[in-house]
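TODO from last week: model Cytochrome c oxidase-assembly factor COX23, mitochondrial.
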Amino acid sequence: MASKAPADAPAPSNPASDVAEAQWTGKTASTFENKQYSQYFDPCQEAAQKSIRCLHRNGGERDMCTDFFQAYRDCKEQWINARKEARRAQGKWW
C-alpha cells in the first residue's frame, strides 16, 4: 500500500509557477508608470534573488539552478512583451 503525503503538506516549489503568479499586473504596471525617471524598477527581482540564492546554496554550480534561471528569463520575456503591448496601446512607437 503506497503512503500518501498529508493533505496539508506544502507542495514542492516550482520556480516557473512562482514567477507565473507574479506576472504583469495592474499594481506592477502602476508602480512602473509612477516611479521617478531615475528610479530602477525590476518586476522580476524576486526571480533574480531566487537564482542567486540557488547559486549560493549550491556552491556556484550553475547546472543545479537552471530552473531558476529559466524562470527569470520567462519573467523578463513576459515583462518586455507586456511593456511593448502597453506602448502600442498608448500609441507610442518607441
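Done. The longest helix spans residues 66-90.
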